[in-house]
Specification:
38% of the residues lie in helices and 16% in strands. It is an alpha/beta fold. The two termini are 28 Å apart.
C-alpha cells in the first residue's frame, strides 16, 4: 500500500504522513528486542528496550493489546529509534510479566502510570494497541503530565454491537463459573500452539501473507509458553471481563466513562485504525479522534487490528508526521 492510498476519514483532522525516505530500511528480519524483569510494587514486570540510534531522542512507552505482548512492537520501535528511546512492557499476566490481583482497566492504567513514575522517564510518547489503547487513553486523560504525545492503534474503545468483534463469542462464557480452567483444559488438549497461532494471525491481520515466517515462529513459541503458564488464561478472561464491564459503564452517567476521560486528553494524539479490523469496531476510531481536542486520524484500507505489525512503516510515518506538526 502506497501512502497515497491510505484512506483518511472521520471528523478529526487527517493525519499527515512524513516522507518515506526518513525511515531506516528494514533489511531482513528484525529479532525481538532484549528485555529484563523489573520489580514494581513487589511483582515482576517484563520490559523490552529498543535502544535509540541517535542522541536526540525522547522516551517512548509501548503498551500491547489483549492476549498480546511486548513482541508486538518490534518493527515499529525499530523504525522510530532515530527519534525515540523505546520501552515496551508486558501487562500483568501477559507475556513474561507476573499476574496481578486485578485486571480491571483502571488497575492496568495504574500499573502503566506506576512504571512511568518508577522508571523516571516521563513524560513519554505513549503508544497503545487495542486494550493497550484503552489503557493509554485512561493514562493520558488522568495523568497528562506523564504523556508527551499519544498514539492509539485500533484502541478498544466502547462499542456495544457484538457483531463488530471476533471476540464476541467469548463474552457469554464470562458468566460461566470456573471458565478459565475449562478453557485452559480445552486449549491444552485440543488446539496445538501452531493451530492457535494461525487462528490469532488470521483474526488480527487483514492479510496473513504479510506475516514473515520468523514472526509466525515467534507467535507459536509465545503461545506454547502460555500453555505452560498457569495464570495466562485467567488473566485473559478476567481482563476481557473487565473490558466488557468498562464498555457498559461508559454508556452510563459518571466521570469515569472512557469517553469522558478521552475529552480530558491534552497531548497531541494520533488515532490509527485498520479498515479491515475484525476485533474492534472501526467506527470507534473516528469517534475517539473527534473527542480528543488535539487529534489526527488515519484509517488504513486493507489493514487489520495490529497496524503496527501489518504496516509498521505507515504507522511510523504518521507518528513522525505528528511530531513534525507539533514540533
Amino acid at each position: 500500500m502506497r501512502a497515497s492510498s491510505a484512506r483518511l476519514a472521520g471528523a478529526a483532522k487527517p493525519a499527515r504522513l512524513a516522507a518515506a525516505d526518513g525511515l531506516p530500511p528494514i533489511d531482513g528480519f528484525i529479532p525481538p528486542w532484549p528485555g529484563t524483569d523489573a520489580k514494581l510494587d513487589g511483582t515482576s514486570l517484563y520490559v523490552r528496550h529498543t535502544p535509540a540510534r541517535t542522541d536526540a531522542t525522547e522516551p517512548a512507552l509501548y503498551v500491547h493489546g489483549l492476549g498480546g505482548s511486548s513482541l508486538n512492537w518490534t518493527d515499529l520501535a525499530y523504525l522510530l529509534a532515530d527519534r525515540l528511546d523505546g520501552q515496551a512492557i508486558d501487562l500483568p499476566g501477559f507475556g513474561r510479566s507476573e499476574p496481578a490481583r486485578s485486571y480491571r482497566l483502571v488497575a492496568m492504567s495504574e500499573r502503566v502510570i506506576a512504571w512511568i513514575e518508577h522508571s523516571g522517564r516521563g513524560p513519554v510518547h505513549l503508544f497503545g494497541n487495542s486494550l493497550g489503547g484503552a489503557v493509554a487513553v485512561r493514562v493520558a486523560g488522568t495523568r497528562p503530565d506523564l504523556v508527551r504525545t499519544l498514539t492509539l492503534i485500533s484502541p478498544a474503545m466502547p462499542f456495544v454491537d457484538p457483531r463488530r468483534s471476533a471476540q464476541a463469542r467469548l463474552v457469554p462464557l464470562l458468566l460461566v463459573p470456573g471458565i478459565e480452567r475449562i478453557v485452559t483444559w480445552r486449549l491444552a488438549t485440543t488446539i496445538t500452539p501452531e493451530s492457535m497461532a494461525r487462528q490469532v494471525i488470521a483474526a488480527c491481520f487483514a492479510d496473513p501473507g504479510r506475516v514473515r515466517p520468523e514472526r509466525v515462529a515467534e507467535a507459536v513459541e509465545e503461545i506454547r509458553r502460555r500453555y505452560d503458564v498457569p495464570w495466562f488464561m485467567a488473566a485473559y478472561m478476567r481482563t476481557l471481563r473487565g473490558l466488557v464491564g468498562e464498555f457498559l459503564r461508559s454508556y452510563l452517567p459518571g466521570e469515569g466513562s472512557l469517553w469522558r476521560v478521552a475529552t480530558r486528553i491534552t497531548a497531541p494524539t494520533l488515532v490509527v485504525a485498520g479498515g479491515a479490523d475484525r476485533m474492534v469496531d472501526v467506527r470507534a476510531a473516528p469517534t475517539v479522534a473527534k473527542l480528543i481536542p488535539d487529534s489526527r486520524l488515519l484509517i488504513l484500507d486493507g489493514v487489520g487490528h495490529v497496524a503496527q505489525m501489518e504496516r509498521p512503516e505507515l504507522v511510523a510515518r504518521a507518528f513522525l508526521g505528528m511530531l513534525d506538526e507539533v514540533g
